[in-house]
Fold this sequence. Notes:
Elements (H helix, E strand, L loop, with lengths): L10 H18 L1 E5 L10 E5 L6 H8 L4 E6 L5 H9 L3 E3 L6 H12 L3 E4 L16 H9 L3 E7 L17 E6 L14 H26 L2
Parallel strand pairs: 1-7, 2-5, 2-6, 3-4, 3-5
Antiparallel strand pairs: 6-7
Helix pairs in contact: 1-2, 5-6
Amino acid sequence: MTGEPDSLPGVGGAEFARRLGVGLTRGLYRPRVFGDWRVPSQGPVILAVNHSHNVDGPMLFGATPRPAHFLVKKEAFTGPLGTFLRAIGQIPVDRHHADRAAITAALGVLGRGGVLGIFPEGTRGDGDFAELRAGLAYFAVRSGAPVVPVVVLGSARRGRVVTSLPPLRARIDIVFGEPFAADDGSGRRTRSALDAATARIQKRLAAHLAEARQATGR
């Protein structure tokens, strides 16, 4: 976008990723998307997504109604894959240290009214939001952007190797929840305020996961 710092990921790349995600996921799997209308049509928003398989990211590209910029572990940004991820507007982040470049880029996306995607568990796991990193709360409190919980179900299956792809034409459900404010309205950004926001977020995400499982029968 004209006039934006070079450090900000491009919207055009993210829109290309969205269209590519639609084509790939619908060509390979049978995705069912619930509640995508809950994503605000304009203004900054944070997508908080569970993470149980590497395919979750591409699935989200195709399911989200707006171009999204996800925080992706910097280890993925090597060789051709790294070049591609940057071209489609994704943000590399060091998960082990404070990453000022990633923080600046993420806040820049929200500052221009864009969509920031975060896997708050930090790495692949059971996808149950049992443990959250504080980064999600920081971005939500700092920017004031609403958080939309998102659950991907069916990408990782019991009895299968986690790194293996889901079977072709497998049904994968993506469920968007109601947006909510992470802060308490006080405007405080203290450590205790961020801890409280993290606990508040975790409660809402866990509740959405339970509702998504009930709604989809997963």
